[in-house]
Amino acid sequence: MTLRTCRLAFALVIAGAVLGCQDRTSGTSAGYRELGDLPALRERGAIRILTPPLADTEGLPRQGHLIRLEQELIEAFVRLEGLEPLWIWVDERDDLIPALLDGRGDVIAANLTATPNRRELVAFGAPLTTVRERIVSGPDAPAIESVDDLTGREVVVRASSSYVETLETLLIENPDIYAAAAPEDMETEEILYRVSQGEFDVTLADDRIIRDVQAYLPDLRVGPEVTGDREIAWAFRPDNSELIDAADAFIYQYNPASDIPDRYTGDLDQIKQRGVLRVLTRNNPSTYFVYRGHVMGFEYDLAREFARRHGLHAQFIVVPTRAGLITWLVQGRGDIVAAGMTATEFRTDIGAQFSRPYAFISEIVVARPGDSTLVAPSDLSGRTIVVRRGSSYWQTAVGLQERGIDVQLVAASEALETEDIIDGVASGEHDLTIADSNILDIELTWREDIIGAFSLGDSIGHAWAMRETDAQLKAAVDAFFSAEYRGEFYNITRRKYFNPSMRVRRHATSRAALTGVLSPYDELFRNYANRYQVDWLLVAAQSYQESRFDPDVVSFAGAVGLMQVMPGTGRELGFESLHEPEQGVHAGVMYLYRLYNRLDEIPDDEDRLWFSLAAYNAGLGHVNDARRLAVELGRDPDVWFGEVAEVMPLLQKREYYSRARHGYCRCTEPVDYVARIRDRYRAYSDAIADSAQASP
To answer: Which of 70, 299, 546, 669 is labelled catalytic?
Structure first.
């Protein structure tokens, strides 16, 4: 192992441990002004990192987000300097540079492009990577082959973005271009979506963002490059030369993102030299998904931990179809496949090898409730099973036919997940299907319209796939699973996804009409609801729905306290002890208020509140995906009940979530969540009114 590789591994292990332990400090605890260089920061013992909040704006990373790597790198740099990283979340991107120059932070780590105009204000460090900006138009608009084709076209960019400088250059070359400003709170991905829908004509975007967006908006027309290489780098105050020099030395030695081609092969030693482990996976509830604005998944957690232990950054790449997973692996577009996969002869024949199993599952026949005739394989005679031809289920079903069981076998689309086919069984579109027991376990935690009839054969193992030539990587993965299988980390991770539960305590809320008291925390609800101009009874109803007024509840996803706030969200808002009732309530009400403000385009206050609650439950990104879908289906995107509430559950179906920015969503949950809070809120209002009338 080279010196660079050793130091890189050490640096990223530190960063991974930091992220894994979730010990980031909120910016509210670093509310001091400091303009000094590295010696002054050493005296304070910390470096303040300015960045935009991620939970509300970041979509599902289908090709790996550079900003995640930035976070790991900047924390590793700060730790190696013997200092503490203090994260300062800045609501608007155009406030990042003013905050830096004003001394409210020490470095900007925000996927910032080093444009000429920005270089006049701040100093940029060594580049993390380079990008090129391109012209992008919609699928139904005329193609753009050159700048001349922009004559009479309207190009929409944010005024604070790097693209506005590029547009100014294009206007010199072609003055017949119309320039228009997008809202400052609109992310580039949202602008690209509006271009795809014909709401905007043309925009500019860098090739990394375009590549990620094309994973779910493949019809975008990508035109010519309009810049050369532009550097993405950290920004500093110009006179902080010692800090800049230290950061540059770190970047030159440790940065794993620079100059890596899209397709390459190589065993673990070469992967460690690059510093990035590319993980091929799928977007579904058992592998990789977004929940309340946070990326999660069983395979995601396992792969990140494996990468961390080897000093690597895990980059997750969503492959469009399950059948493409092994193909992409062999082509060099990823290093491992982590997607709940079974070793088959076909997969090994085309160049894959498999690790030792890390999970043992049974294949279960899935039927509708009431189908009591199914108790054994012989009962499948005369029935129809729908599965993907490329799945291991197909071979299982063929085996049934070879045993003389008269079962009809129908091939489902290779683009469908097992969960999608289960939906078809539940709706009556399909007769039966086969599913792994762990997938069925997740489905049965939230739905009652399917059953597991019986298992087929012995248990089988799930394993990660690697190229057959990568002996070092296979040995490392085997060692990881040998050490972790049924160990503490593995067991906690598995229970988190496949046996989710929430401790619930019962409370005699029916006495509210007599006593006027809903919970022991009514005064906290009143205080913070009043501060943020929310009805305290609504806050009480939401708290009951979240935790049954139990401050010690921790959800399967790690949400904490009376209002079940995610720890990362709590830190962004300035709260470290969410299990404490006052902090938990304050954080929850503040977060609801923040979501309400971010939905200011919804004209009706009551509807805006329902959307805010849905975003609190599922994440703002999934709510925005549902509003987009409502427009596409001719529904009103500004009305919750009867409109978006009816559309949102469609994001559980692959035909819809595959082209949604935030991907898969178990979106019957937020619909039910909002309805239950509304009904309880009304019941509380009636009960308190009755209590007031009964008082002498």
So the answer is: 546
